[in-house]
Amino acid sequence: MSHLISVGDLTAQLDGGRAVRLLDVRWRLDEPEGRPAYLAGHLPGAVYVDLERELTRRGHPEEGRHPLPSVDALGASLRRWGVHAGDLVVVYDDNDGVAAARAWWLLRRRGIEVSLLDGGFRAWVQAGLPLESGDRAVAPGDVELTDTDPGTVTIDEAARLPQTGILVDVRAPEHYRGRTAAFDPAAGHIPGAINIPTISHIDSAGRFRTPDEIRATLAAHGIAAGVPVALYCGSGIAATHSALAFALAGVDALVFPGSWSQWSRTRGRPISTGAEPIGAISAV
Predict the structure, then answer these.
(1) Which domain of life, per UniProt (predicted)?
(2) Cα(84)–Cα(76) distance, rounded to whole angstroms?
(3) HSE (CB half, 13 Å, CA atoms) of 270?
(4) How many CA atoms are closer than 13 Å to the CA of 185, on its beta-carbon side?
């Protein structure tokens, strides 16, 4: 199962009669409600997925800003989106795959055949392919999820990982170094974490770099297949984008879902600032 699908391969799948369910996962931090953009124009047949309500559950603040949905809730959403057993699910967004990767990661870890449209909505439009406007109602699907290893680490496991493996902060350098707190109550990074921004894995067109290019980036930080590694970001969204990039390079990375939004809301947790993995230390 390929993690990515190109526009050309997607149109071939659609023309070939394969059952494909398209999921539009448009979301970004500065514009979390993507439905207006979806209604204005989306890939024909695509169903809108609300990241804030369907790929996240309501939780306590100390769990972070985007706690993971339960298996039952995610399964109910999939059936509501019209996904049937055996369907190929293709997810996309208009934000370099960052939001769509959250869906890719959640579904892949639960046994769904899912690929992310490389280049997303922009690549489809640039190819001159048609769009559909308005909402899309679909008949309920019948898919069932497997309750398997979700591929996550807890806050305590994330704290210990720099001693046994590699913990990667995928946020922009200014957030890692503690220059801005963004949406969270404190700025900085988890002591011992290294910084590999998720944006380093995409090119100027918003497509993922080649597996060899990604492997070279990871190798420069001592990361290769078999090395224990976990990823975190601001709230567990961008980390899944990096998880996809790592998967393309043949590295199975775990994700700390609560990420910095949980760490910075947990009293007593140490905070490191600066460019080094262990810099100036303070506490939440």
Answers:
(1) Bacteria
(2) 12
(3) 15
(4) 13
Answer yes or no: are the C-beta atoms of 17 and 83 closer than 8 Å.
no
Q: Is 150 exposed, middle or buried (0-12, 13-18, 19+ CB in 10 A)?
A: middle
Tell me which of 146 and 68 has the higher pLDDT.
68
Domain presence at residue 17: yes
Tokens 């699910």, residue? 89
Looking at the chain, the whole-number percentage of residues with pLDDT higher than 70 is 100
In the structure, what pLDDT confidence band is assigned to residue 1 with cuts at 50, 70 and 90?
low
Residue 228 lies in domain:
155-283
Say whether 112 is catalytic: no
Three-state DSSP state, 93: coil
Q: Which of 98, 233, 247, 254 is catalytic?
A: 233
Q: According to the model, what pLDDT value does residue 273 have?
A: 96
CATH number, domain with residue 195: 3.40.250.10
Average pLDDT for residues 255-263, to the nearest whole number?
Answer: 97
Pair (110, 227) in one structural domain: no
pLDDT at residue 125 greater than cutoff 90: yes
